[in-house]
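Run log, item B.
One chain of 260 residues. Sequence copied directly from the ordering sheet:
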Amino acid sequence: MRLWPFVLLGLAISAHAASVMEGTQAWPKATVAYHFEPQLLKAVGATGKDCTGWARWQHATQAYKACAAMDAWTTATGVHFVLDERRIDSLYIKAGSTATQATLGHLPAFNRMEIEAGATYGAVLHEFGHVLGLMHEHQRPDRDQYLTFAPFLRNDIDYCGLTISAVCSDVRGAFPIVRVQMSSDYDPCSLMHYLSNQTPRHREDPRWGQIFTLTKKGQAALDTCTQQFMALPARCRKPGQKCAISHDDAMIVRRFQKVS
């Protein structure tokens, strides 16, 4: 659930929606061109180069999760994904060795997604949110009204600066507030929000087991937004859920991508 570092440089402002960072670009005609690394399709026995027949593929494979995620985003937003390996801006979906990560929005060239062999479907669904322009919900300028970071993380956010360490590099990329064009409410149910338990990021430090708590206002927002997920398991009704695309996620993508 990481972003490629260079995407934070940004391009021209093109949206007026919360949770889309300034500089992020929409995909032309709300259509994402993509192509797979051949080995991902070979692993599922695909006869073509696209997602045709994906529902019959082995569910544990990277290609299945990628195609299932693209189908979910299309169903929720109307954005289309089309095979086109000739375009320089085509999203290249490949195996990842150390992380599941993606570029943010549409770049003129070298859009890509890496999927680890053990990545969950929810993690892949989250990364396609980045591809479609969504930033991390917990990096919005109004986030402190809704959550309170643990003291150790707040200290790292404030003082890591240019410190050279794995932890500070992670903190600089995933937690600082970034500028957005805002017009919707904070969504603790967003697929793009982090879980409070971030133990996998830094297993050597138990403090990462709870990096934030909700404020009173945050809890009220959660109580409201979780109504959409009442039919899903309890784990899907907390900040950082990776079960489904929230209503606000879908709304923002439709607006940003100008889906007609």
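Observations after the first pass:
- The chain has two domains: 2-131, 139-246.
- Residues 17 and 183 are 5 Å apart (CA to CA).
Flagged for discussion on Thursday.
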